[in-house]
Each structure stands twice: as C-alpha cells, then as structure tokens.
Amino acid sequence: MNDVVPFEGIGASVRRKEDFRFLRGRGAYTADFNRQGQLHAWILRSPHAHARIRSVDVAATTGMPGVVTVFTGADMAKDNLGGLPCGWQIHNKDGSPMAEPPHAVIAHDKVRHVGDPVAVAIAATRDQARDAAEAIVVDYDVLPAAATLEAALKPGAPEVHGGVAGNLCYDWHIGDKTVLDAAFAKAHKIVSLDLVNNRLIPNAMEPRAALGEYDPTTGDYTLHTTSQNPHVIRLLMGANVLHIPESKLRVVAPDVGGGFGSKIYHYAEEAIVTWSAGKLGRPVKWTADRTESFMSDAHGRDHVSKADLALDANGTILGLKVHTYANMGAYLSTFAPCVPTYLYATLLAGTYITPVIYAEVKAVFTNTVPVDAYRGAGRPEATFLLERLMDVAALESGIDRVELRRRNFIQPDQFPYQTPVALQYDSGNYQATLDQALAAADWAGFESRRAEAAKRGKLRGIGCSTYLEACGIAPSAVVGSLGARAGLYEVGTIRVHPTGSVTVLTGAHSHGQGHETTFAQLVADKLGVPVAQVDIVHGDTAKVPFGMGTYGSRSLAVGGSAMMKAMDKVIAKGKRIAAHLMEASVDDIEFERGTFRVAGTDKTKALVDISVAAYVPHNYPIDEIEPGLEETAFYDPKNFTYPGGCHIAEVEIDPETGKVSMVNFTAVDDVGRVINPMIVEGQVQGGIAQGIGQALLETCVYDADGQLLSGSMMDYTMPRADDLAPVSVATHTTLCTHNPLGVKGCGEVGAIGSPPAVINAVVDALRDFKVRTLDMPATPAKIWGIINGGRAMAAE
Amino acid sequence: MPQVTLTVNGQTHTAEVEGRTLLVELLRETLRLTGTHVGCDTSQCGACVVHIDGESVKACTTLAVMANGSNVTTIEGLAAADGTLHPMQEAFREYHALQCGFCTPGMVMSAIDLVKKHPDGLTEQQIREGLEGNLCRCTGYHNIVKAIAAAAEVMHGKRAEIARAAE
C-alpha cells in the first residue's frame, strides 16, 4: 500500500470533489427537484416595452385542462405584499436620495419592459400552465418607450416612472472638481475619448428556476432557487416582499449552473412561487426557458462615457475627468445603483498615480430589463475606459504605450497607496506583472509576426491592458456609509465530528467556483484533515448559520477568512483540551496540521484524540470547557482586495471579411495567494472568454420601440469553442496584507482585464486606418466598414 | 395519448406521452433522469445532448415519439456499474473541463460521439469545430478541448491513462 498522501493543502491542484456528481448526471439543480402534488407556474410577460394595463381577463382559462388558477398583479396587491427591494441607496450631488420608484412583483398598472410579469398561470403541468397563460387576454394601452439611454435622456422623453423627471435615477459624483480644473489648466495635453460599454446578457447556462413550498401545519415556507446568495434572498423576500419571518422561511440554493452576477438578485419569480404555494397549499415550480432568461435576468454594463485625461509634457498623468451615463433599465435591481458608482468610479485610478480624479455619473431609467452587476460589475467598465484612454494618449503624445503605462505606474514601494477616489490599495507590483506578460507574449518579437501576417494578407495587432480591480467586498461600515443596506461580512462554521471528519458550513455559495474542493483544502492545510474527509455545506439557510453569498470575487477573501478564523477558535479550544489530556500548560501546546504537541517534547495528540475527548468528555475539564468541537466565525473584511495584472491580446484581421481572430492571449494576474492553481487558471480562462465575448461578439440590442432583438441564443452571439484560441495564464503573487490567507480573488479578473486588451489589439491591427474609437463588439461588419472606408457603417 | 417504448441506459421503458412531449421531457420528468439538462429553447446550447442508437442528438428538439424503439444513452448511463468513469468523464475531471457542471452532460455526450467519428484522431481545431453545437459559459472551452484530446487518445488506445502525467 502506498502510504504517501499527496499534498492537498494550499497550493495543490487538487482535482475537484464536486466533479463526481456533475460528471455522472447526479448534480441537483433547482429544476431537478420535484415534489408530491407539485404544480407548475408559467409567467405571462409583457410583449410591450411600455404600456398601461387596462385589464387582464383570465376568464378563458377557466376549465382548461389541468389549470388550477391564475394570479394577477391585482391579486397580489390585495395581499398587501411589498415590492421588490433595492439593496443600495445612492445620494445625489445635492445630498438628496436617488429616485427609487416601486417595483411590483407582478405589474398591475403599467408594464415597463418587454418581459415584465403580468400574470402567473398555475396548472398541473408546465405545458398546461403555458397554454393557460396564452389564453389570458391583456388589454394594453401602448405608450411610447424610452428604449435606450439616448432616447430616455431626450427632452420630452417618455417617463418610465411617473414623477421621475428626465428618467434620472441619480446624479452622483466623486472627487474634487476645483482641484481637477486647476490640474487641467496646467496640462500640456488633454486627451479626450468617447466610449460605449456595450450592454451584455449574462446567460449562465442554467436558466433560473424556483420551487416554492408551504407546510400549513407548521407555517413553514421553503424556496429552492437558482441563487448565488440564499440568505440574502431570505432576508429580502421575507422582510420586504412576503412578510415571512426568517424563522419560517428556508431558502435553498442547491447546485447552481453558473451565475456571473445574474443570480445575486431577488427576482419576482421567487416571490411568486413562494406566495402561490402558500395560497394554494401545494408546491409551485417555475423554470425559465431561455427566452425568458433573456428578458428577465438582469443585464450588465451599458454605459456611455466621455473621458478626458490631462498629461504633462513627459506623459505624466495630471488628472482624469469622466462623465458617464449608466442604464438602470426599468427598475432598480438589488444592487444596481452601486455598480456604476462605488464599483466603477472608485476604480478610475487603475494602476496609475493620478493626482486628481473627478467623475460624474448619471443613472437613467429606460424601458428595458433591469441592469445590475455582471462578472466584474463596474470594474470592467472603468478598466475599459482607462486602458483605451491610455492607448489613445500614447498614440497622440507619441510615447510608446507600454512606456506611458510604466511612467505612471504606482511603484511597488508606494503601498499602501491612497487613490484620490476613496480606495486604499494594500499591495501590488504592476511592473512585475507587466514584465512577465510582455515576456510571455513575446511582445518584443511582435513586429516580425505582424510582417509575416502581412505577407499572408492579414492585419495583425497586439494590445495590452494593465488593469486593477477591487474585490473581496467589503468592510460593512464602509459600504454602509456609501449606501449599502446590508453588511458584507461572511460566516463560516467548522464542525469537527467526534471521529475527526469535518463539516464546514459556509455562507459563500459555489455555482462553478469549486468551493467544495478549495475550501476543503484550507481545512486540510490548517487542520491536517484529508480533503476526502472534509465536506462543505453551502446554499441552505436551514443548515448554514448566515451568509452574504458569492459575488465580487469574495468567497475566499471573505468566506475563506471566516473559515480560518473559525479554525483558529477550534485550535484554541483544542489546545486547552490537549493541555488537559497531556497534563501540560496550555501555553506550551503547539499545533500544526492535525497534531497538538507539548513544546519541546515528543508528547503529542492527534486532532481526532481531541475531538473524541470533546464529544466523549469522560476525562475532560468539564467545569472549564464545554464539550463539543465546533466553532463559528463572522469575518468582516478590513478593506477591499486589489487584484491586478497585465493582459495581452494578439489578433489577426482578415481584411476581406473584417473578421477578427484571436491568435494569442496572455494573462499574468496577481490574485494574491493561490490555493488551487488548477481552479484559478480555470476561473481566469473563463473570465477571459467572457471578456473576449464582450469585445468581439456579444451585445444586447433593443429597437426604438424597446423590443429585444437579441432575445435568443440564435440572435445573441455567445462565444463558442472555435471563436476562442488557447489562453496562456500565469500568476505573479503579492499577498493581500489584511486577510489571514493573503488572497485577493480570481473570479472576475479575466472579464475585467481582457476587453481593452482585445480592442487595443484590434485598433493596433487597424493602425493604417487611423481608428481612434472603436465600440465593442468589434464585429466583422464594423471592421469591414472601417477597412473599406465605410465610416458611416462603422458608426452604426 | 401515444405510447412509446424505448431502452434507456439498458433499461426498457414504456410511457404514455403527448404528441408534443420532447424526448428531454420524457427523460427528465417521466424517467427522472435529470442529468440531461435544458439550457435553451432554440437548439443552440447542447446541454440536452444524449445518444440515440449511438449518435449524439439534442433531446430538446427530438419528440419523444421519434425515439420509439430506439436505444438511448444519457450521462447517467456512461459510467460502469462499479462506478468507474468513462474515459471522457475521467478526462473532464482531470483537466478541469467543468465548472458549474450544467453544460457538462451534453458536452461529454457530444465529445464521445465526436471522438468515435474520428478514429484517426482529432486536431485541436477539429475539436473546437466539433463543439459548435455546445455552449459553455464557465470554462472558455480550453480545458474542454484538452480533455477531449486526452480522452480521444485513451479511447483509441494511443495512451494508457487519462492522468496528466501521461502526457
């Protein structure tokens, strides 16, 4: 027998525990759950972007096969239910709060976007519910729509919400405009750029689903839902919408098939099935089809910005001014208001010493699906703006684009570094990630590759971005002062069982990130328990004490830190028990990877000796220490974490077709300490695929009437395997200085760093055509238009 | 209502279905084989791919009645009775070719058919093109491509085991 146990702790590419069930079809996603007596719901959705509801006539559904009932917005209103809440309040420049119009679970006076729920039909089968929904007659008074940012901002534009003048949700700013104006007055050069950050549709592969249950004997409700944060859903839905106390509401987010932000929010359907289950006394299940996902999952990005960068004669940045319009869609989704403000404008310093920044952001309501955080959330928008601006500044000041970045980098000895836009970076080394990426991508040898491509009739280009992001959100007091209506700590429980196996309860939620493996590695590393004997429990409010969930690359930095803190408590208690068993002073007990030792002796006790003693306390200091070996910790982070790095894209354009092909992509990311390199690499690769998707393929399109034209996977271009090329991913680590693991987060860096690298490469490939601005996605039609002088086409 | 009889993962089933019932609905709702997923409604994503008489087919665009008399294999039917994974399943795990796991069953079923149809081996580009009908939002496909290449070598006897050390 081979006694060598492979190292499974921090730094090992342990193969994932969760894969066994996923690979055998044994995953348990929300749509896979079925209950005795279960009914199915089908949501009737508005086909109009903006209309007044004159009447909803459900008479034709009576007697249809299998149909149990139809609920309308009026039925819900009769129960005095609350609207869907917003979790973040932004204040205007003048100190007044943002406009926060109500968001009915089922619309009953007006519909405000295509896909707004109007009624729910409930029947024995999904098909029967759908048939019933199709038999409902809604009389709409169709109103003109404000379908785009531009349309919503026009004088006299249709009002999405009565009383919200100019469709303005808020008019917010950050930074000192007076100081900025003074800096600009001294500038040698001011580089200005107009940018659009294209609207994206997240498209996690698992469509959203929800299954509500009610037990009339106990009054307990249970909701299974496709969520990244079940405790948050319990709080928002219970307290704000359905008025069910937490003690009577269990929310389970079982296996979830991808989220990317879109499954953070509390959605109408969750409240609809839970409420309906209570009304009918039977389980009610809803599963979205993909068309519904397109018109009801929160979208991402959608900014229109103008940026001005002031430089001195050496290319040193003197100041940055940014004006951004951000599309909120028709209603405020759960975290929408913070995305274009505190997750965006605070990132505008990037990796550069920028003495002064002033940013204004106007958030605008439109007759479209709500917009909220999507992988990166604000940071991709800031990074795209800044990294495109640096390339244009380099071109126009005649300074090499890499050199311009170097000249302005925050230096490795300047940390902690206070930016002018609130954040204080704890660590980083932007020179090192840049140098490593330049070498890995053979930046120096690029011109010969360009020349070789030219011989084949291809336009080859290279581009970089030296990005920074903030994640591991976030210190509760800080976000509270900025308008968050929640704390952003995380919770972890370490339960050492009598015979030494461990169950971890975590408030973080895994929907692809591999927590069941990575978190088990933390326990293996610290407590010396093999990964196979560590089980991670997440996604169930009945099992996990509390939690804020997974988004903003926070699971390890915040959730992992909570586990570390809980393990410290376990070890502290274990030392007291060990001291008793070995008749030593507790101060003399050392602990390392599963072994308690009396310092300087060969007297040891294994963790399992301690756990047995703790649960079978026969020889035990029972008057001083409680039995059991289980500890819980809440960890509130001291700061954000600041991953950063360098992404380099190399593309080739076929001038005959305008098609951009990815040739090489190199990423060197500083994500702090790496727990499982295999999983980090996978996270970065996946993020880059989404970033390349944004840069080259994806965009959400509404027509002037607010009809969603890119409303299916046949119309919205998802990246496929042959759209992408291999990606070289490496890390360069500087440790986070303020969390116990030194980790920063890796979930979003790929989607944040890559879009500007790709567009900078495309612009470089088109250098002979003097392209200054290029909006994403760089589709063949757009590029062909540029190459063939069709500027009008390119501008479309 | 029409009646269909089909063999799924070696077991024969007879069920009454509506004319409009899709094969994926029969598998998921009637036979409770929930490993086959539904990710879209336009036959684009491939989360529902199963094998009908050895050929990969999108079960979301196949009527249950069309599968009458056929032999269906789903993701649940791939591993050996003792739990030993199929080389493709093993390769997906070894190469970290899955994250959320939702596209995985369809991806694995498509990949096996792709490999079987190329007994002489597959280039990276052939694998990428062969995955045209399957969407993954998590991985960026790179590790899926690597896993399929490794599994192809094992399935065609050109490599003894999936472990990366065997590369």
TrEMBL record, chain A:
Per the record's keyword annotation, is Oxidoreductase included, yes or no? yes
For this UniProt record, give its keywords in alphabetical order, as a comma-separated list. Answer: Molybdenum, Oxidoreductase
Carries keyword tRNA processing? no
- SMART domains from the xrefs? Ald_Xan_dh_C (SM01008)
Q: What InterPro entries does UniProt report for this protein, alphabetically?
A: Ald_Oxase/Xan_DH_a/b (IPR000674), Ald_Oxase/Xan_DH_a/b_sf (IPR036856), Ald_Oxase/xanthine_DH-like (IPR016208), AldOxase/xan_DH_MoCoBD1 (IPR008274), AldOxase/xan_DH_MoCoBD2 (IPR046867), AldOxase/xan_DH_Mopterin-bd_sf (IPR037165)
Query: Per its UniProt entry, which superkingdom is the organism in?
Result: Bacteria
| Residue ranges constituting the Aldehyde oxidase/xanthine dehydrogenase a/b hammerhead domain according to the UniProt record | 24-144
Q: Which residues form a coiled coil?
A: none
Record's protein name = Xanthine dehydrogenase family protein molybdopterin-binding subunit
Q: What is the lineage of its organism?
A: Bacteria, Pseudomonadati, Pseudomonadota, Alphaproteobacteria, Acetobacterales
Automatic annotation (TrEMBL), chain B:
Q: Which residues form the 2Fe-2S ferredoxin-type domain?
A: 2-78
InterPro entries hit by this protein? 2Fe-2S-bd (IPR002888), 2Fe-2S-bd_dom_sf (IPR036884), 2Fe-2S_ferredoxin-like_sf (IPR036010), 2Fe-2S_ferredoxin-type (IPR001041), Beta-grasp_dom_sf (IPR012675), Diverse_Oxidoreductases (IPR051452)
Is tRNA processing there in the keyword field? no
**Keywords (A to Z) from UniProt:** 2Fe-2S, Iron, Iron-sulfur, Metal-binding, Oxidoreductase
Domain of life the protein comes from: Bacteria
For this protein, the record's Gene3D superfamilies field holds: 3.10.20.30, [2Fe-2S]-binding domain
What name does this protein carry? Answer: (2Fe-2S)-binding protein
Q: Which organism is it from?
A: Neoroseomonas terrae
